[in-house]
Design goal:
alpha+beta; Replication Terminator Protein, Chain A, domain 2; 2 domains; 4-stranded mixed sheet; 3-stranded mixed sheet; 7 helices; 23% strand
């Protein structure tokens, strides 16, 4: 019963995703043909893609057989659209989030959803095989479109290269993570023994390498007040724009990120460069 319910829920969410993408594609192309859109776009594959090429990239949820499902193409920039498209984009983002939740629930209750989704895809669109597209690109399905409800005055793009994230953990939390690993392995046993040697109250740091991110610093002029908001922008930012409004000022960032920024660390927060629990990338503070 659970399997049938989760399958039905997943298929419905997938159908809504396809319908939402088609509505978004159709309305945006219609606005483009009516000369009601303006854009500035950069791509990590080509410098100045056209808007129809961008629309195809944003709505294509498939990848070639030789593609790496962990990777997605990055598009940076700004797209001004008629105001009536903004709620359509918000709705599509909600549909994407619901689909992601449905996939998660199916995985937890049933297992790998690939066969169900591929079968449904063939029912919805039989030309996929002829085009050489076979596997669903789940990460592409999940990617939310950045959208603003008001037209910004200025947008400044920059690379965020923190290099790594640091998550504080307790000794108990680290032990719990180790106990979920293969306890028959000697290196896991040795790490559990090492963990038992340090005080229970000692804070630990789990390091996670981060890829560089494109960030957008967005500015609005409201009366005499300048409002700011920063956000990640791995995809073009949509915003309302009519014939009487001016396209926002912007800078043109490099397509390649700079080398990782080296920050000076405070002496009281220095982390031992050698991992104390290598299997979990957990370090001790000095």
């Amino acid at each position: 019963m659970t399997s049938a319910h989760e399958t039905e829920t997943l298929v419905r969410a997938f159908d809504r995703l396809n319908q939402g993408l088609e509505q978004f594609r159709t309305q945006l192309l219609k606005a483009h043909r009516a000369d009601k859109t303006k854009q500035f776009i950069l791509s990590n594959n080509q410098a100045k893609p056209s808007l129809p090429e961008v629309i195809h990239a944003l709505t294509n949820i498939w990848h070639l057989q030789q593609g790496d499902g962990r990777k997605t193409d990055n598009l940076y920039g700004l797209i001004g659209v008629p105001a009536e498209l903004i709620p359509i984009i918000h709705q599509l983002n909600q549909i994407k989030a619901q689909f992601q939740q449905s996939v998660k629930a199916y995985r937890e209750q049933v297992g790998d959803p690939s066969s169900i989704l591929n079968k449904r895809s063939e029912q919805l669109n039989l030309k996929l095989q002829r085009e050489g597209l076979a596997r669903l690109h789940l990460k592409q399905c999940y990617r939310l479109f950045p959208v603003l409800n008001k037209t910004p005055a200025k947008v400044l793009f920059s690379w965020y290269t923190s290099g790594r994230s640091i998550k504080k953990l307790s000794v108990a939390a680290a032990e719990k993570k180790l106990l979920k690993m293969d306890l028959s392995q000697l290196h896991i046993q040795l790490q559990l023994e090492a963990l038992a040697k340090i005080p229970d109250a000692e804070p630990l740091a789990q390091l996670q390498p981060q890829v560089p991110l494109m960030r957008a610093n967005i500015l609005w002029q409201e009366n005499e007040t300048l409002l700011r908001k920063a956000r990640n922008a791995p995809l073009p930012i949509f915003f309302p724009l009519d014939d009487k409004q001016t396209f926002p000022e912007y800078n043109e960032p490099s397509l390649t990120p700079p080398e990782t920024r080296k920050r000076q660390q405070r002496s009281d927060l220095m982390i031992d460069p050698e991992p104390y629990l290598p299997s979990l990338r957990i370090h001790r503070y000095r």
